[in-house]
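Ticket reopened. Same input as before:
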Amino acid sequence: MSWGSELWDQFDNLEKHTQGGIEFVDRYSKFVKERSEIETSYAKQIRNLSKKYQPKKNSREEEENRYSSCRAFVSTLNELNDYAGQHEVISENLTANIVAELARYLQELKSERKSHFHDGRKAQQQIESSWKTLEACKRKFERDCKEAERAQQHFEKMDADINVTKADVEKARQQAQGRHQMASDSKNEYSAYLQKFNQEQNDHYYTVIPNLFQKIQEMEEKRIERVGDCMKSFADVDRQVLPIVGKCLDGMTKAAESIDAKT
Amino acid sequence: MSWGSELWDQFDNLEKHTQGGIEFVDRYSKFVKERSEIETSYAKQIRNLSKKYQPKKNSREEEENRYSSCRAFVSTLNELNDYAGQHEVISENLTANIVAELARYLQELKSERKSHFHDGRKAQQQIESSWKTLEACKRKFERDCKEAERAQQHFEKMDADINVTKADVEKARQQAQGRHQMASDSKNEYSAYLQKFNQEQNDHYYTVIPNLFQKIQEMEEKRIERVGDCMKSFADVDRQVLPIVGKCLDGMTKAAESIDAKT
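Engineering reply: fixed in the latest deploy. New output:
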């Protein structure tokens, strides 16, 4: 387990979750597209039916148009043609208000998601790299401490030896002093870096990552709201044509009622 | 131009007209059948769409069902399935209330029409046959008159001829008397048949044929009313599902509104 592995896991889960979100939007959009195609095909069939039964020019059927029942049939066919038109309106509005909108939005969403995870990975790599530098500082300080101790022991051994020249003792003393200075410098360096790292780690945990998570959460909330709006629109598009469909049906009823059997 | 040719023409026109009426009912019935088939096909496509996008068992999609947007999508799919069901109802009712009814009615109408024209033709042939008999009576009477006149002239010629025996004169007188009797009988026969024919002709023109035309007119009025009822039913069948379609759409809207982006 490397440093920050839990955070990495969280990132992985978020990536998976937001990818699922994108797939859901994509799947919903495909669903609406297919519904729109069904409406187009239905409208086409109804239009063809209406056309097929219209009296042909200069035919006996057209001649029969003087009978009220034949005229009522033609009215029914015309109303049915308008009825088909309403299903074309459903199809067009589903495509314009949902499918086209979601296609644009999906590009935006994918790009925003990519940017957030790019920023997240970058911040993670940055702090991990800082942590490695800190570890290196720590190891250097420990090594320098050991070197200083070893030089001190060497100096003390030389100093206690009666067969050693004063010049050699002085050399060992200066060496030990130099090593102590290096260890002290390493300690300062390590201490300074530790302070810097603590600050960086603090920023990472309490500012950078929470901000990023906040942005991803907002992106997700916006996505869910957007899907909700589309689902409302899906029903609205259909509901909007109901009064006009009702008028077509009233037109058919009126035509049927205008039939006078006595004439 | 034979006797009653104008009436024959009227019968021909009525036959053509009522045949046109039957063809109109047949054509209308086929139209409703095709509309019913379009509704079935549309409902099937919508059902398949709803099924296709239902989350698969034990899939990630099903797992995602804990999200409110996924649940709302499933609700939309379920409402859409009910929506499809309403178009199946349209299809079934069009078939049951119109197509099946008109199929039965067309058989009835064809049989009634056949029976009326059979009666009409029979009455026409009857009166035509009576008229031929009357003509034959008339010709016989005219022939008998000529014969009686010739016998009378023969008797008068014999009676005036001094070289003819009384016996021959008596024979010619009896012959002439016999011919006069025959002519008188023919006259009575013709006169009686004429009276009978006049009565028959009266019945034919003022009772039999008007009654038949009245029945055909009633048959036609009933047919037109029947078509009118079907045309009303055609719109009603569609109108009846509108409130339920509206409820399906309300269900979709409610599902969309239940989406909570915050959870």
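Chain A touches chain B through 54 residues (CB under 8 Å). The longest helix of chain A spans residues 68-160. Please confirm and we'll close it.
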